[in-house]
Amino acid sequence: MSTLHAKVSAKASSRPRISILTPTWNRASYLERSWQGLNRQTYTNFEWLVADDGSVDGTEDIVKALAARSNFPVIYIKASVHIGKPRMDNELLNHSTGEFLIWNDSDDWYLPHALEHFIEQWDKIPAENQPEYIGITALCSDAGGRLQSSAVPFNHSVVTTWDDLRFTHDVAGDMCLMVQKSLLGDSRFVEVDFMITESSYWQPFSNLKTVFSPVVLKVMDRTTANRISFSQKMEYCRGKAYGLAMAESAVPANRRGVLRGIWLSITFWRYSYLGEIPWRSASALWRGGIPRVLHLASAPLGWALAWKDIIQRKVVRTHREFEAVKDVVTISRKDLN
């Protein structure tokens, strides 16, 4: 039996090869399902880090019980109050020790062969070329087997970039990643609200090489409670404004199209106004993508949409709540096994 297929416990290793990162907020009832996905892995040289964002639903007791049943290290990070996913993602980055990072949100779970597949794909890259690669990219499905991305034009693994997947091959939607931690350096999620888009973090790495493997490795549950992605309210607006500026304003118009760029600019101004970002600060955030005159001309349309949201009473000023707690929160860590 190869060492890859053997049940290698990370407890016996001086450093786990993979760090599994799980930010969670009041999702105690879903954590065992995520844990089961990890517990069934055919490759087990990993650690599991759970970052509890001030939950009040017994999350800590659940994580402790799961750690007692685990043959891999479990690290529990807890915020004293709800401080938001960007801060908890940053704490996970700070405390992880693996060579590679894999995010496993609390309403997702990995299929039993997932980590083995990631490592197999990585180990096929010649060692001298590995510093050029951000990592391995694969597909996600929902519980019914439906892809969470658009159809892919490959039936085999290919070397590509995230930008080429998006703009050349029109592949959009959720995917799962195993990334080299060393290439991330000191890069961290921007902490301005309880949420910021993940693409804002990954954009600087979008031109690095990745091996794209067109197989489903992760299942995403779109029916869970407390999903911030599908709220009908206008909330996390400051985070969304920053996210749009960081992820989209650097994309050249010839890759995305001018009309799409104008709509994103309008949306940016809408979120900026609702997120109470001063004009000068908002103007400085948007770095390009469309001509400056078009970006500035789109501001009145963004403000008009923002006023519509206000009149319809859809706006939640989450950034104000964030500002109230960001300097008083405390973070603790426990190595549970």
Tell me about this structure.
The protein is of the alpha/beta class and 337 residues long. The protein is built from 14 helices and ten strands. Strands 1, 2, 3, 4, 5, 6, 7, 8, 9 and 10 form a ten-stranded mixed beta sheet that branches. Strand 2 (46-52), helix 2 and strand 3 (74-79) form a beta-alpha-beta unit. Helix 1 (28-39) runs parallel beside helix 2 and helix 10 crosses helix 13 (299-311). The chain is globular, with a radius of gyration of 21 Å.
Q: Structural class of the helix and strand makeup?
A: alpha/beta
Order of helices and strands: EHEHEHEEHEEHEHHEHHHHHHHE
- The overall average pLDDT, rounded, is 92
Tertiary shape: globular
Helix content: 25-40%
Number of strands: 10
| Biggest sheet character | 10 strands, mixed
Share in β-strands: 15-25%
Q: N-to-C terminal Cα separation, in Å?
A: 28 Å
With helices defined by DSSP (H or I, 4 residues minimum), what is the helix count?
14
Gyration radius from CA atoms, angstroms: 21 Å
Unreliable stretches (pLDDT < 50, length at least 5) are: 1-12
Summarize this structure as a short list of keywords or feature phrases.
337 residues, ten-stranded mixed beta sheet, alpha/beta, 10 strands, 14 helices
Would you summarize the structure shown here?
The chain is of the alpha/beta class. 37% of the residues lie in helices and 19% in strands. Strands 1, 2, 3, 4, 5, 6, 7, 8, 9 and 10 form a ten-stranded mixed β-sheet that branches.
